[in-house]
Amino acid sequence: MKIQAQVSMVFHLDKCIGCHTCSVACKNIWTDREGAEYMWWNNVETKPGTGYPTQWEDQEQYKGGWEKKSGKLNLKMNGRLGALGNIFFNPRLPSMDDYYEPWTYEYNTLTNAPEGDDQPTARPISMVTGEPIDIQAGPNWDDDLSGSEVYAANDPNLEGMSDEDRRMMFEIERLVFFYLPRICNHCLNAGCAAACPSGAIYKRGEDGIVLVNQDKCRGWRMCVTGCPYKKVYYNWSTGKSEKCILCYPRLETGQAPACFHSCVGRIRYLGVLLYDADRIDEAVAVEDADLVEAQRAIIQDPFDPAVIAAAKANGVPDAMIDAAQKSPVYKFVKEWGLALPLHPEFRTLPMLFYVPPMLPIQALVTEHGVGQAHDESGAAPFFAALEQARLPLRYMARLFSAGNEDEVAAVYRKLIAVRVYRRAQNTTGALDDEARAALDGAGLTAEVAQAIFELTAKPTFDKRFVVPPLAREVNIESMVDPFTHKTEAGFGFRRDAKRGG
């Protein structure tokens, strides 16, 4: 048992209001410079939708992440010879059109225009070529447009949906949708690191943050292909790749990352997970339907004496173990089983987890008028049934559980049970039959339901962000061999001055 620590995240999608404050905070700090204009290390997408870059989820096109072939796990993009063959031309990269061409405006025509009868106009100008452009896309081009036949209809997650699912989803989608904020997942089995021919991408062993060494990066851009989430960007000005660094300078001073700190909806949680590195190969080798459970299985109980002893033997500091015991991420992911990884079928073991959005529809319009939805769990009088959700379980399962609808349904039963429990508490001050039935159906106790409510609805700053002392004096770096794809931890490297996005 090789216990390592990983700084991990949970995003509670029920609380996201789509304000993009997180994106602006990140942009102002890290990517407000030449060559990084189109980089959105943090972006917020409307789902269903095509996302940013366009259709990043379509790995038949972009070949990101890992796949099982002949019983072995290989990068989906290619093997060693394929990487060398495409090193000067990679057909699996998003184009500028899949992002957008950065632009500004001819402001001088407004400020210096002579007096006249016509209103001067500031034309959009490309920041790459300096020439006038016709704007066709932007970072949030499909924001709030989930009813669109252009954006929502082209969502890759719609593949395999029945005609009835599509009909139900698009009828309701005209009224509601949900937001999906995304940052780098700082994966345990990072495809970007394994794809890099120069070994520039590495994973910090003491906290798991994935970084790009700007001195080693040669701009091959294999990392862009290898990352199935398309969260590595190429700086067209410097010729280097850059990505989210999880604001490690802030973490090293005890502060939460900028996007976490600025989040208006308080949807973000940060904490430490202890995991068994010896079981990573086992976790990524299971069938798609078992990937969520396999990822949970490698996360270890920070209160278990055997786990604590193994962590200390592997150099994990006491302060990191203490942070893992207080981690809100551990509660959401492992203890309560509420948070799920985004597209686990990519087999990168992402360390960013999502609590799926709840069901806002309490009544459905039928051919006979407005009808009440019913649920077998006993929540019928108040909450919509799972099968009558605003988005089909099949769609949510494509996003968060590699198609395993049971995993998503189990999460929703718990979320519904907590709401039924809280309604009973607020109305009568005691559990009624409906609340008991909902809790029993979800496998929860009243104490656990109350704890979920407390951490979801009214957590303090310190409860949401348990930032561990990152112990840079220990200075462990996990390097990934670009040919064997094996991760090795080494000591004694000092790269702080050279570490880039």
Written overview of the protein:
- The protein is an alpha+beta fold.
- The chain is built from 19 helices and 20 strands.
- The strands form 7 sheets. Strands 13-12-1-15-14 form a 5-stranded mixed beta sheet, sandwiched between helices.
- A hairpin with a 6-residue loop joins strand 18 (476-480) and strand 19.
- Helix 15 packs across helix 16 (405-427), helix 16 packs antiparallel against helix 17 (433-442) and helix 16 (405-427) crosses helix 18.
- The relative contact order is 0.16.
What's this, in brief?
The chain has 501 residues and is of the alpha+beta class. It has helices at 21-30, 59-62, 80-85, 108-111, 163-173, 191-195, 222-226, 248-251, 258-262, 280-284, 291-298, 305-313, 318-325, 328-335, 393-400, 405-427, 433-442, 446-457, 461-464, and strands at residues 3-12, 43-47, 66-69, 72-75, 103-105, 124-126, 178-182, 201-204, 210-213, 232-235, 240-243, 268-276, 299-300, 340-341, 352-355, 363-366, 369-372, 476-480, 487-491, 499-500. The strands form seven sheets. The chain has a five-stranded mixed sheet with strand order 13-12-1-15-14, with helices on both faces. Strands 19-18-8-9-20 form a five-stranded antiparallel sheet.
